[in-house]
Design a protein that fits this description.
The chain has about 240 residues and is an all-alpha fold. It has ten helices and no strands. The protein has two domains: about 80 residues, no CATH class; about 110 residues, Serine Threonine Protein Phosphatase 5, Tetratricopeptide repeat (Alpha Horseshoe), CATH 1.25.40.
Length: about 240
C-alpha cells in the first residue's frame, strides 16, 4: 500500500476539517436563511472554534515533534554522504538548536500539552549546556505543577541533576519522595534503580541490598534485569530522566 507523504496527510486532514464546516452549512442552509438560524449560527461558531483548536494542536504537535528530533539527533562530526537523518557536528550545537525550538513551542503553545512538556525539555537542554542553575530552577518549578506525569519526570531529572553535581542528599530526598508516590510514567522500580545507583557512590553495601530487593520484587522486568547486571559488576549507569 502506498504511503502518504506528510504534506499529503496534512492536506487530507485540512480537507476533512473543511468538510465538517461546509457540510454543516449545506445541511442547514435553508434553516439559517429562513429563520431560527441564530442557534444554528451559534453552533457553527462553536464548530469553527473546535476546528481552530484542533488545528492549533496539530501545529503544536508538529513543532514539538521537530524539536524532539533535534534533541535526540546523533552527533556526527562528519556525516556519511547520503545520510538523510538530522545530525549535528557538536553536542552544543544540537542542544542549542533544540533549546530554541522548545522555547518557541512553549511560548506559542503554552496552553496545550506539547507546550507544557516543551518547558521540561527546555530545562533538559539547559542542563546539557551547563546552565545548571537555570535548569534546576525550571525543573523545581515543573516538579510542583499539578500535572502528575510532568511533575514526576521533572523531579527525576532534578534528582539526576543533583546527583551529577554531588548533591547526593538532595537527590536521595527526591528519590525517596518518588518511591513513596510512584506514577505510571515513573514507577517505583525505576526510582529504586536510580536510588541504588546513587548509593553505589555513597553507600555500596546499601546499593547491593537494594539491587537484591529489586531483583526479588520485580522478576522478569527490565528493572530486575538491570539490578542483576549491577550485582554482577557491570558498573553504574548514569541516571537518565524519562523522555
Amino acid at each position: 500500500m502506498a504511503r502518504l507523504t506528510r504534506q499529503e496527510l496534512k492536506r487530507d486532514e485540512f480537507a476533512d476539517r473543511l468538510g465538517v464546516v461546509t457540510g454543516f452549512f449545506s445541511r442547514n442552509r435553508r434553516k439559517i436563511v429562513l429563520g431560527g438560524g441564530a442557534a444554528l449560527l451559534g453552533v457553527a461558531v462553536v464548530v469553527g472554534g473546535i476546528l481552530f483548536v484542533r488545528s492549533r494542536q496539530a501545529s503544536a504537535a508538529d513543532a514539538f515533534g521537530k524539536a524532539l528530533v533535534s534533541f535526540h539527533a546523533p552527533v556526527v562530526a562528519q556525516p556519511a554522504p547520503g545520510l538523510t537523518i538530522q545530525t549535528f557536528k557538536t553536542a552544543e550545537e544540537k542542544y542549542r538548536t533544540a533549546l530554541t525550538q522548545f522555547t518557541e513551542v512553549s511560548s506559542q503553545y503554552g496552553r496545550y500539552q506539547q507546550g507544557r512538556w516543551a518547558r521540561y525539555y527546555v530545562a533538559l537542554c539547559k542542563r546539557e549546556l551547563g546552565q545548571t542553575a537555570e535548569a534546576e530552577k525550571d525543573l523545581a518549578g515543573l516538579g510542583s505543577t499539578g500535572e502528575q506525569d510532568l511533575a514526576a519526570v521533572s523531579k527525576m531529572a532534578l534528582a539526576a541533576l543533583y546527583q551529577k553535581v554531588s548533591r547526593a542528599e538532595d537527590a536521595e530526598k527526591i528519590y525517596r519522595e518518588l518511591e513513596s508516590n510512584p506514577t505510571p510514567i515513573v514507577p517505583k522500580p525505576t526510582v529504586q534503580i536510580a536510588l541504588a545507583e546513587l548509593y553505589q557512590r555513597t553507600n555500596p553495601s546499601r546499593a547491593t541490598a537494594l539491587y537484591q530487593q529489586i531483583e526479588k520484587d520485580y522478576p522478569g522486568t527490565a528493572a530486575a534485569d538491570q539490578a542483576a547486571k549491577m550485582l554482577r559488576g557491570a558498573g553504574p549507569v548514569d541516571p537518565q530522566p524519562a523522555p
